[in-house]
Amino acid sequence: MHQEYTVIEGDFTNAGTASSSVKKTLKQLGVAPQIVKRVVVALYEAEVNAIAHAYGGKVLVDIEADKIHMVVADKGPGIPDIAQAMQEGYSTARPEVRDMGFGAGMGLPNMKKNVDMLNVTSEVGVGTTVEMMVKFV
Amino acid sequence: MTLREIVETLNATVYLGEERLNEEVTTAFASDLMSDVLTLKDTPMLITGLCNVQTIRTCDMATLDIVVFVRNKKPTADMVELAEDNDMVLIATSYSMFKTCGLLFDAGIQPLY
Ligand SMILES: Nc1ncnc2c1ncn2[C@@H]1O[C@H](COP(=O)(O)OP(=O)(O)OP(=O)(O)O)[C@@H](O)[C@H]1O
Ligand SMILES: [Mg+2]
Questions:
Q1: Which ligand gives the minimal distance to the CA of A51?
Q2: A65 CA distance to ligand 2 centroid (A)?
Q3: Would you give the distance in Å from CA B33 to the centre of its chain?
Q4: What is the distance in A from the centroid of ligand 2 to the CA of B41?
Q5: What's the CA gap between B78 and A34, in Å, rounded?
Q6: Which CATH number belongs to the domain containing residue A117 in this structure?
Q7: CB under 6 Å to ligand 1: residues?
Q8: What's the pLDDT at A10?
Q9: Domain that holds residue A38
Q10: I want to staple A89 with a disulfide (CB 3.0 to 4.6 A). Which of A95, A96, A105, B25 is the partner?
Q11: Residues 6+ positions from A81 with CB-CB distance below 8 Å
Q12: How many structural domains is chain A composed of?
């Protein structure tokens, strides 16, 4: 099953649209609640990042019998040093993002903890792509 | 402790989930930081001063379904609507975060960590 969502630039109130929808789909498919939580927490973190640090983008989701594959690709400033961005506590979040309760530098490390595969690629001045996979068993 | 007892202890207003007030609550977590809420392994009651749509979304993703807003933060209609879709309980108190946590800790609500 293939699903696509658009993440709109600056639209914080809609951050989580893709994750909410994926949550409903996985529940309907009978995927175990602990696994659903890992998937949607990771996807939500990536969605929030695409709005908080970039200018929006696309979410592509592929659900198979035994796994889910997710890609969040944004247009944005990119990440100059991915290893640094992966460190817990590292954040360049703007004050507006912090006012929303984000910007603790915990998102990327949290994605890593929740998924079976995380691959972050980025080109400065172009954008960032976060690819994740979670196995259902 | 039941939700009803929590509401009484905090002199709180129930914005959503009146029908769930007989449910027992054993653990709570207090934070204004949604980044932190997203790292929780369990699903405690959330006590927070952050009152916006993102609070509800974050709870949805983290599968938390009981939220206490402190210090006169009142959930908006948008928030209640979104929370309703997820069968959540939303309550609000005028007490500060410190007082709220102190009273509930005293009454036997357990910390998550
Ligand atoms: N999509 C992105 N585009 C550009 N920079 C990004 C992107 N995602 C992350 N970053 C950079 O990596 C840093 C760390 O990201 P991470 O998600 O771990 O923390 P955060 O978003 O700052 O805070 P939190 O996730 O705890 O709310 C960000 O502050 C930002 O500098
Ligand atoms: Mg983040």
A1: 1
A2: 29
A3: 14
A4: 18
A5: 28
A6: 3.30.565.10
A7: A 45, 49-50, 52-54, 74, 76-79, 85, 90-93, 102-108, 128; B 35
A8: 87
A9: 2-135
A10: A105
A11: none
A12: 1
B52/A40 Cβ within 8 A: no
Q: Report the candidate in A107, A106, A109, A99 with the shortest Cα–Cα distance to residue A12.
A: A99
Judge: A107–B35 Cβ closer than 8 Å, yes or no: yes
Distance from CA of A10 to the nearest CA of B (A): 13
Q: Which CATH number fits domain B3-108: 3.40.1390.20, 3.40.50.1820, 3.40.50.300, 3.30.559.70?
A: 3.40.1390.20
Task: For residue B78, give the 3-state DSSP assignment.
Answer: helix
Per-residue pLDDT tens over the stretch A14-31:
899 999 999 999 999 999
| pLDDT tens for each residue of A73-123 | 999 999 999 999 999 999 999 999 999 999 999 999 999 999 999 999 999
Find the Cα–Cα–Cα–Cα dihedral A101, A132, A3, B62, rounded to 10°.
Answer: -40
- What does the pLDDT look like over A30-80, one tens digit per residue? 999 999 999 999 999 999 999 999 999 999 999 999 999 999 999 999 999
Give the alpha-carbon dihedral of B18, B113, A117, A37, to 10 degrees.
Answer: -10
